[in-house]
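pasting for the record
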Amino acid sequence: MPAYQTIEDVIGRTPLVRLQRLPGADAAERGNVLLAKLEGNNPAGSVKDRPAISMIRRAEERGEIRPGDTLIEATSGNTGIALAMAAAVRGYRMVLIMPEDLSIERAQTMKAFGAELVLTPKAGGMEYARDLAEQMQRDGKGRVLDQFSNLDNPRVHYETTGPELWTDTGGQITHFVSAMGTTGTITGTSRYLKEMNPAVRIIGAQPSEGSRIPGIRKWPEAYLPKIYEPRHVDELVLVSQADAEDMARRMAREEGLFAGISAAGACWAALQLSLQVRDATIVFIVCDRGDRYLSTGVFPA
């Protein structure tokens, strides 16, 4: 009988594709190659599928949780969707806490997987949501996996995302660009790439002052993710909301890449980089798909 795969088995090993039109003549003349890692191809539609299943599996292995338990997580969207999927697969009740101003599509997707939503005031942002999750855990209402301090988050990128990029570029990757939210992707991936070649440059995309870009955060010092390892990030690039939203539309129209706003921010940073370097292989993470942002008005109706 064939050995059929499960949903968990098809997380990761996502495509790496070359941008054809956006880089323009300047990048081509400089001998640069821009590659996009299509994490929206994961089963629940984002790069967060990797840490979601990793955090649950490893907590089970350590005996910290077992099927039937209640899991709690503060989320801006993609992690919540991924955890809702993973909880459904492995038999957990999932309670997700998120600010009320996030996109309708994300909330609806979480509910489709059977998760329960707790919406918090917009003014409190993710900081308030994180505080509430910790309070619920102290009150005995469930266990917080805590993507912001859980080492199983960057660990899975060290074990999977980094090796995939190294293999798929034949070890030729020179620059890695990633949006920074929980920082799990950039922390785990950069650690692996730096071990393989210390010369690989790691660039993190953060929002400029006043910009609100879903999936990209610049945390107050007190809320900086504990998993973040700044020594592995060579440069921080500030991306404006306007540039990220414009790039999301351009990615769809000029490359056929229908991606989210944080992915577009990483793409913008990668394109800026391509005008400054030569003979480079630049990889950026397309962390999710654009259909999660249709209600935001970023894409034309």
